[in-house]
Amino acid sequence: MSYPIEGACQCGQVSYKLLEAPKNVIACHCTECQKLATSPFSVTAMVNSDTIEFKGDMSEWCRLADSGNTSCAKFCPTCGTRIYHYNPDDPTNIKLKLKSKGEDDAVFAPKAHIWVSSKLSWYDIPEGAKTFDKQP
C-alpha cells in the first residue's frame, strides 16, 4: 500500500488524505455502532491526528460513552456521512469512519472485534479473529 490514500463522504463535500497506515483497525459491535452503521458492526481506523488531512466543513455531535469518556462525531452537514470520532480530552487520536477511494481497501480490514458481548446473534466473527467482550 502506498500513501497517501484518499477518501470522501457520499456527496464529496468532505474529503481526507491519510498520510500513513492506521495504528489499528477494529470492528465494534456495541449497540451505538450498530445504530451508526445500520449494520452488525462499525469499522474504525485509529490514526494520529497529524497523519491525516481533512478538507470541507463538518458538523459535530457529542455523547457520553459507556466508558465515561465523551465521544464526539464529526460528520458532513450535507449528506450526513460520519467522518470520524474523537475524545475531546485526547484530540490527537482520530477514529476514522470512511473507506478509501482506491481499489485496495485492505488497509481498513479489522484486526480485532470489540464489544462482542453486544454482537448480533446471526453474525459470525471470522475464525481466528482477535475478540474482546467489551472495550479493551
UniProtKB/TrEMBL annotation:
Coiled-coil portions: none
Family (UniProt): Belongs to the Gfa family.
Boundaries of every CENP-V/GFA domain copy: 5-124
Domain of life from the UniProt record: Bacteria
Taxonomic lineage from the root: Bacteria, Pseudomonadati, Pseudomonadota, Gammaproteobacteria, Oceanospirillales
Gene3D superfamilies: glutathione-dependent formaldehyde- activating enzyme (gfa)
Keyword vocabulary terms for this entry: Lyase, Metal-binding, Zinc
Protein's UniProt name: GFA family protein
